């Protein structure tokens, strides 16, 4: 039997691994968890160890939005039980929305778990781990309200060229299908000066793109009584020196106002992209969901966005099979989807969540929901293909990223996102296509960098040559057409991080007890940047 026993802890730094299940908010929360663990002296597990789940501390950050969330969690925990038997010193922690919901029930079902903590007390993770290790028993601590705003916590950013920035937490809406307000609490807004300071700190670390996060970003300002606060914030963030791309997610149609559209159109750094959750095209179902808008208002928002930004890409969320949905209701959804021309859509079969008002309603037959779901997916696939094929011949600027293209190696391409957030796989000039394929030193880290070789974080201007439902291809470099690389501070920051990880350079700044691999990107709220406060 293959053993996964780690070297004795006294011979090496303790390692950690954070697994994320769920939304962008969870991804950002996981960055805070990683930052807290690194402040405790742990280092990120090497990629090969992470793939085999070999680490001294493993944290699972859970989601509770879908019915299969628990299955995913306990599937992960079941697999970790064997690893813990082989390595009794390993600690397993469970956080996030499902932990907030199930609490001590997680330990009852999986007694090998050491720590359970919720959405409101991420900051308690290091203390709970130490307490569990000292007392040799599971520690469960769930707070009923936010203890510390997560953005004030240490942060290990996964990306040096793009970052998440929370502008609020919680939600004041009462959608009948949604468990999030119960688990994340009422909306809490950060002050604009704090947000701008965090954006400024990200720029100082090399980032050129930020995504503003909230359960309902366009209700930002409700806590301090400014209904136009989000539009003002967009303009202010877009004006931070060094920022080239600003995105946000997710807004709510009921609170989406024209001042936000005007701010998007008037601020060059705010990207022509909008994620606008529809959920249903039937007014009757929207009413049953307590979604305080109707299909006409929704379509009106899209019309005004496209009038202000003709090339905006709009995406959405749609639920199929909400209790009581009739064939006529579903046909209304198909009609609105056809009219909306979404570039893509996240489509879901209704998932009953205990604790929500809709949980008490009689569900539709599974076969009916499945058949409708397949029809919706087929429709949206056609629309996505048509919309992406319409991009062929357009010149787009792509922010090159890591991990966006699963087949980049075999296709000899690199991948990233266009301004409208479409995924683009772009070909390098033919003379560069095989560069580095045989192993050895990474040519992207060379001091004498080839001017046509992009690094993650650099921007490349290319022409779209092919459109598929879920991505674009830009092979213009192979056809003697548009291909221009623009070096960025973000690309420089990526290269410096990789040189440090490879032992080719020293860290330029020290931010506490960190170690390679991982090279954390720490974040505190600066006190010097008074111009942004």
Describe the fold and architecture.
- The chain has 533 residues and is α/β, with parallel strands linked by helices.
- The chain contains 16 helices and 21 strands.
- The strands form 5 sheets. The chain has a 7-stranded mixed β-sheet with strand order 19-20-17-16-15-18-21. The protein has a 6-stranded parallel β-sheet with strand order 2-1-3-4-5-6, with helices on both faces.
- Helix 9 packs parallel to helix 10 and helix 13 packs parallel to helix 14.
Shape: globular
Based on secondary structure, the structural category is: alpha/beta
Number of helices: 16
- Taking pLDDT < 50 over at least 5 consecutive residues as the criterion, the unreliable ranges are 1-5, 510-533
Helix content: 25-40%
Beta-strand content bin: 15-25%
* Biggest sheet, spatial arrangement of strands: 19-20-17-16-15-18-21
What is the secondary structure topology, with strand pairs?
Elements: E1 15-20, H1 24-39, E2 43-44, H2 47-51, E3 57-62, H3 69-86, E4 91-96, H4 97-102, H5 105-109, E5 115-117, H6 125-135, E6 139-141, E7 162-166, E8 168-169, H7 180-184, E9 188-189, H8 192-205, E10 209-213, H9 229-238, E11 245-249, H10 258-266, E12 273-275, H11 283-288, H12 295-308, E13 313-320, H13 327-340, E14 344-349, H14 366-389, E15 395-400, H15 408-411, E16 413-417, E17 423-427, E18 459-463, E19 466-467, E20 472-474, E21 483-486, H16 489-501
Parallel strand pairs: 1-2, 1-3, 3-4, 4-5, 5-6, 7-10, 10-11, 12-13, 13-14, 17-20
Antiparallel strand pairs: 8-9, 15-16, 15-18, 16-17, 18-21, 19-20
Helix pairs in contact: 9-10, 10-12, 13-14
